[in-house]
């Protein structure tokens, strides 16, 4: 179908959402999910899926989701880090539901959910 | 629109395709399905990444992980370890991407960090068969800008400000060329893209067409608007099947979106593009021969003037530019001529793509700002000669160019600088030679090529190149005389002065430049009847020295059975004799040298 200039701009914005991943300079938010054997057996995969789904739903195109191996605190799995502007927060004992909350509260609203962080859990 | 957490980019250029990158892509897709993560990870086939030496190449984003020389059997590990579990498979990384156990991203390795990409900016980044990905990275924005905000004169002015010169070889200022083409009025005018890339070892144009075909279509449409043409031809050789099929796909997609055809973007401007396939004749890269070929005639040059801007295809005003020239244009229109002219050196602006080949570690495609020195390209990006061999010369400009020696390595690359040294920019082939290359043989190789490719229309080129090659043959086989050398020189200059087109005029360049810089090698061939590097087999002889222990390893591998134990007796006890090579039967294959035990190494080549 023939496109108008406005259509083309729309295509550009849509396609760019996905493609921004290939431009490493743009992203300032990084979610690192622990996907060692410990993580996977504790249910890291549904957590990862939930994060991606939530990011997709909200078109958060400057968020990178990467995986990492075991970080050595297997009892806290599934866990993931949220890095925004080099400030790292580690969330532990995650579920899909909690992960979705983190995406909304922390990444979108910039409010850390203290109750889910490693600092809180360790002191219990 | 689906957003993926990870993108796997696999090179689909000709180089990597020939080492099965498309099968790797299929394997990756089926592995991802098996692991159930195909909705999270996108597999994209892209154009050439440039580092063809390390192909097939796979880049994984968001990390920018650089896997090289990927095999089909490696795919499972990458999918399971990296994409599923997030553990980078370190032993499959490009060797330079792993430094002290720290993984570097693709942008950080030397080969890429020292380049600057304008024409190749989309190569290896987007899927060339998906117009949306091109549009995502500002594709067709330049066309929108030109059609809606600029008039044709402004487009041409922007090009003149940019200082862009033709990237096909001669380096004619592009803005002026467009202005000439625009100045001739006719009912029909044409824009033509010269994609007949013929230099041995050069593949810049092919990679651009394969990696970002829409840039060329967009630029040609802008050219049509600026010069008042409504029809474009892309003349590409049938030997580039992947480039042709991606162009066809791109043209189809552009037509669907209304970016080609009638009334483009509702501005009332019509432009259409047709592909013309050439049979792969070197001479058809010459613009008038190319025009003949497009018209369906035998590809032979016409006399100039009239230039194509006045009388080109079907006798109508025609603008002809090279692929790489076109590929620079969208960026110039978008970012402005001033931006472009801020890159490079006074006579040469912007960047240039080079195809590095020959005796160089990182064979592949590089784009560097003009003014970069040859040393930076060959050593910093290209990684120097492999196996610590000594650099001897570099041939720029393909068979029409000349060779430059180590004393020229610090020359900033630019059109005028290279011509001053007796070579030329050419389309960007850069063939590196090390101490093992015989310069007479190199000259003979290039001449063999031009001799084959001469169209036969004018005598100096048709007959002259044949005679030149005969003279070189004589020298390489030890029959040359000093008189032959002076004849060689005289004839070379005659052909240069008297040929009809650039093919003939530049054909003797390799001879002239090697004679200038490596006369001693010619003299060794002529006077001493020796080839200093051992390349010219007819001048070689193999001998077995008295280090021989009489084991007979050499005799067993000799394909001509010309090694026999007929020398003096080595050991009275065993009665073993020294082996001797019968040089009248020897074909100089060198098998005996390799067979001789390294501790003994009794066989020498002189």
Summarize the structure.
The complex is a heterodimer of chains A (124) and B (606). Helices cover 44% and strands 18% of the residues of chain A.
Mean pLDDT figure of chain A? 85
Number of helices of chain A: 5
CATH fold-level topology of chain A: Glutaredoxin
Would you tell me the structural class of the helices and strands of chain B?
A: alpha/beta
The percent range for helix content of chain A is 40-55%
Q: Shape of chain A, please? A: elongated
Q: How would you characterize this protein structure?
A:
The complex is a heterodimer of chains A (124) and B (606). With 124 residues, chain A is α+β, with helices and mostly antiparallel strands. Chain A has helices at residues 5-19, 37-42, 44-57, 96-108, 118-123, and strands at residues 29-34, 63-68, 80-84, 87-91. In chain A, a hairpin with a 2-residue loop joins strand 3 and strand 4 (87-91). In chain A, helix 3 (44-57) crosses helix 4. The longest helix of chain A has 15 residues, at 5-19. Chain B folds into five domains: 6-109, Glutaredoxin (3-Layer(aba) Sandwich), CATH 3.40.30; 131-340, Rossmann fold (3-Layer(aba) Sandwich); 345-434, Roll (Ubiquitin-like (UB roll)); 439-528, NADH-ubiquinone oxidoreductase 51kDa subunit, iron-sulphur binding domain (de novo design (two linked rop proteins), Up-down Bundle), CATH 1.20.1440; 541-606, 2-Layer Sandwich (Alpha-Beta Plaits). Helix content of chain B is 39%, strand content 16%. Chain B is built from 24 helices and 22 strands. A five-stranded mixed beta sheet of chain B has the order 9-10-8-7-11, sandwiched between helices. Chain B starts with 5 loop residues before the first strand and ends with a strand. The A-B interface holds A 1-5, 8, 11-12, 14-19, 21-22, 24, 27, 30, 33, 35-36, 40, 48-49, 52, 55-56, 59, 61, 64-69 and B 1-7, 9, 40, 42, 61-64, 84-87, 105, 107, 125-126, 132-133, 135-141, 144, 148, 256-259, 265-266.
């Amino acid at each position: 179908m023939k496109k108008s200039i406005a259509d083309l701009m729309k295509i550009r914005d849509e396609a760019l959402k996905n493609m921004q991943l290939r431009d490493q300079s743009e992203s300032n938010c990084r979610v690192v999910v622990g996907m060692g054997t410990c993580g996977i057996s504790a249910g890291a995969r549904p957590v990862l899926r939930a994060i991606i789904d939530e990011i997709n739903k909200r078109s958060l195109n400057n968020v990178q989701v990467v995986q990492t191996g075991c970080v050595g605190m297997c009892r806290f799995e599934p866990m993931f880090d949220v890095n925004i502007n080099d400030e790292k927060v580690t969330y532990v004992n995650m579920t899909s539901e909690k992960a979705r909350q983190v995406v909304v509260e922390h990444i979108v609203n910039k409010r850390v959910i203290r109750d889910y962080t490693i600092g809180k859990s360790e002191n219990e | 629109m689906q957003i993926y957490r990870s993108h796997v980019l696999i090179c689909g250029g000709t180089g990597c395709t020939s080492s099965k990158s498309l099968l790797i892509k299929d394997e990756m897709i089926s592995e991802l399905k098996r692991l159930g993560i195909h909705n999270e990870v996108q597999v994209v086939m892209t154009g050439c990444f440039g580092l063809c030496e390390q192909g097939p190449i796979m880049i994984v984003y968001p990390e920018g992980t650089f896997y090289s020389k990927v095999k089909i059997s490696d795919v499972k590990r990458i999918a399971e370890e990296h994409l599923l579990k997030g553990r980078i498979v370190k032993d499959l990384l490009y060797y330079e991407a792993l430094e002290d156990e720290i993984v570097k991203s693709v942008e950080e390795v030397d080969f890429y960090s020292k380049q600057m990409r304008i024409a190749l900016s989309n190569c290896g980044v987007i899927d060339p068969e998906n117009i949306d990905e091109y549009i995502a990275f500002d594709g067709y924005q330049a066309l929108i800008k030109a059609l809606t905000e600029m008039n044709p004169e402004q487009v041409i002015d922007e090009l003149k400000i940019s200082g862009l010169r033709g990237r096909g070889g001669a380096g004619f200022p592009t803005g002026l060329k467009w202005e000439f083409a625009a100045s001739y009025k006719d009912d029909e005018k044409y824009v033509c893209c010269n994609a007949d890339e013929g230099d041995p070892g050069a593949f810049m144009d092919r990679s651009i067409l394969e990696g970002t075909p829409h840039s060329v279509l967009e630029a040609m449409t802008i050219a049509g608007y600026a010069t008042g043409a409504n029809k474009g031809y892309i003349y590409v050789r049938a030997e580039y099947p992947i480039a042709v099929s991606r162009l066809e796909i791109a043209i189809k997609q552009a037509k669907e979106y209304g970016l080609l055809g009638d009334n483009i973007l509702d501005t009332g401007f019509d432009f259409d593009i047709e592909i013309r396939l050439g049979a792969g004749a070197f001479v058809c890269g010459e613009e008038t021969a190319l025009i003949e070929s497009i018209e369906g005639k035998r590809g032979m040059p016409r006399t100039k003037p009239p230039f194509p801007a006045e009388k080109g295809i079907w006798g109508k005003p025609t603008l002809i530019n090279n692929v790489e020239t076109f590929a620079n244009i969208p960026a110039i229109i978008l970012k402005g001529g001033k931006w472009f002219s801020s890159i490079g050196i006074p006579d040469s602006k912007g960047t240039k793509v080079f195809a590095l080949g020959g005796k160089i570690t990182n064979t592949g495609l590089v784009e560097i700002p003009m003014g970069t020195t040859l040393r930076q390209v060959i050593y910093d990006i290209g990684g120097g000669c492999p196996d610590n061999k000594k650099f001897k010369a570099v041939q720029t400009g393909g068979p029409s160019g000349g060779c430059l020696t180590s004393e020229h390595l610090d020359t900033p690359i630019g059109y005028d600088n290279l011509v001053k040294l007796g070579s030329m920019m050419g389309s960007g082939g850069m063939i590196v030679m090390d101490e093992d290359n015989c310069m007479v043989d190199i000259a003979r190789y290039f001449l063999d090529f031009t001799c084959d490719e001469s169209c036969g229309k004018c005598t100096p080129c048709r007959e002259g190149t044949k005679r030149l090659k005969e003279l070189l043959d004589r020298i390489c086989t030890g029959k040359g005389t000093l008189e032959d050398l002076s004849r060689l020189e005289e004839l070379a200059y005659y052909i240069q002065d008297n040929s009809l087109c650039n093919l003939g005029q530049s054909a003797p360049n390799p001879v002239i430049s090697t004679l200038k810089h490596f006369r001693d090698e010619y003299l060794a061939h002529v006077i001493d009847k020796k080839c200093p590097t051992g390349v010219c087999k007819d001048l070689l002889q193999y001998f077995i020295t008295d280090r021989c222990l009489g084991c007979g390893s050499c005799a067993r591998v000799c394909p001509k059975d010309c090694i026999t134990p007929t020398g003096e007796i080595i050991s009275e006890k065993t009665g073993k004799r020294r082996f001797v090579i019968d040089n009248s039967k020897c074909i100089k294959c060198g098998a005996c040298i390799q067979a001789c035990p390294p501790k003994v190494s009794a066989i020498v080549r002189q």
